[in-house]
Amino acid sequence: MRDLISTIKIQVNEKIYVKDPETSTLGKKIIKESILLIDDIGFDDFTFKKLGVKIGSNESSIYRYFENKHKLLVYLSSWYWNWMEYKLFFATNNIEDSFDKLKKAIIIVTEKIEDDEATKHINESVLNKIIISEFTKTLHTKEVDEENKEGFFLIYKNVINRIVHLIIAVNPDYPFAKSLASNIIEGALHQHFLRDHLTTITNCNENISPTDFYINLITTVLKK
Amino acid sequence: MRDLISTIKIQVNEKIYVKDPETSTLGKKIIKESILLIDDIGFDDFTFKKLGVKIGSNESSIYRYFENKHKLLVYLSSWYWNWMEYKLFFATNNIEDSFDKLKKAIIIVTEKIEDDEATKHINESVLNKIIISEFTKTLHTKEVDEENKEGFFLIYKNVINRIVHLIIAVNPDYPFAKSLASNIIEGALHQHFLRDHLTTITNCNENISPTDFYINLITTVLKK
DNA sequence: GCAAATATAATAGCAATACTATCAAATACA
DNA sequence: TGTATTTGATAGTATTGCTATTATATTTGC
């Protein structure tokens, strides 16, 4: 799987960037270092000027790759969910039993991420931290409907739809497969966030993981 | 209940504001019109300058009530969750059966909000729309840990804890009461958001509500 | 009813943000 | 080697997110 991911190019909607950052060393540097800088100072305080200083490049050069920092975050998110979809595919591909398959998928989308060494310019572990704390901001804008029409969130929706199909395979009579799937994806990020910051309103800690919570949830909810 | 709410003053942590907006007409105007303006143009584009123009007041006058727009949003959120807690209390107070009580509570926190005419300077229906699209931004900042220590999110956590107690009353053996409660509160906002913007990844629409989804969820999850 | 206290408005100003434009220098590539 | 493309450097603009100061209302306490 590691080798497969390193050869398959992660596809991101072309409208998200001005120039594809995968096509140059500066572009890859922008991706790599923006992940570290956003993790470090937070997306709200992140600017292209600061990123320029960090990578020893000019602000205006970064604008040649991304219109603004919002689009960069949408790009990083798309990259993350695309990578997640590959992981899902390879991890569940050879499982026969539909419930085991769903279970494996839930583990993949809710677990804490370790760095995948196959992608040298992206640290998935740090990217996962960004997704936990910043992903919601890609959706919660006044432009969400336009951007949705442009296909900015297609990859994210693909991941959810993959889970939807697995849920239906387990229990075709369950009437809320889509809501359950979107709830688990969003909810897992939220439980990770609560574990890190608002510890009194989650059961998740060093011993109990969001994965435990959601595996228990689907087991009872989809029981026939 | 309507009368009770109009007499009980909604309490908000004093550290959130510079001067209590409930103590003056300008303060109340700031609250009332900021809700409408944030709903109109979105929190990201909202500025004190624009609000000043809208209420025919000076930017600097608004700064005497709130340090910045983030604090104003935290204030509006606190007000909302405090109001929600009153609603929860009065709606569940006289119910004996623990499951009916929980069910009623879930209806209250997940349903679409109509304006409560008892509070003249706050349109709860519009405030609910803001909470759906902007509440997550109060938490997802680099300052979340400090602000949590200062008690900025106490009222929000109170609402969740109230649900936690109701869950435990229904099934004391269920091991994820806190995660379930925080998932439902956050998840319901998210399902409302998806219904409005990303309709393909939710079952919620004009006929099926987030309430239906979560009532079904607790019914199966907490079954003994 | 008047003085004192307080609240609000008006204006100015400053540093940072979020860009755009232009031109020069470096690099790639044919 | 010449040309195209990419990057860097510099400058500039409108807006944001404030703070400070002073003037003018408005409230209140006696």
Walk me through what this model shows.
The structure is a homodimer of 224-residue chains. The longest helix of chain A is centred in the middle third of the chain and has 24 residues, at 69-92. In chain A, 65% of the residues lie in helices and 0% in strands. With 224 residues, the first copy, chain A, is mostly helical. The first copy, chain A, has eleven helices and no strands. Chain A has a single domain, classed as Tetracycline Repressor, domain 2. The model of chain A has no long low-confidence stretch (mean pLDDT 93). The first copy, chain A, is globular and about 60 Å long. In chain A, helix 5 (69-92) packs across helix 7.
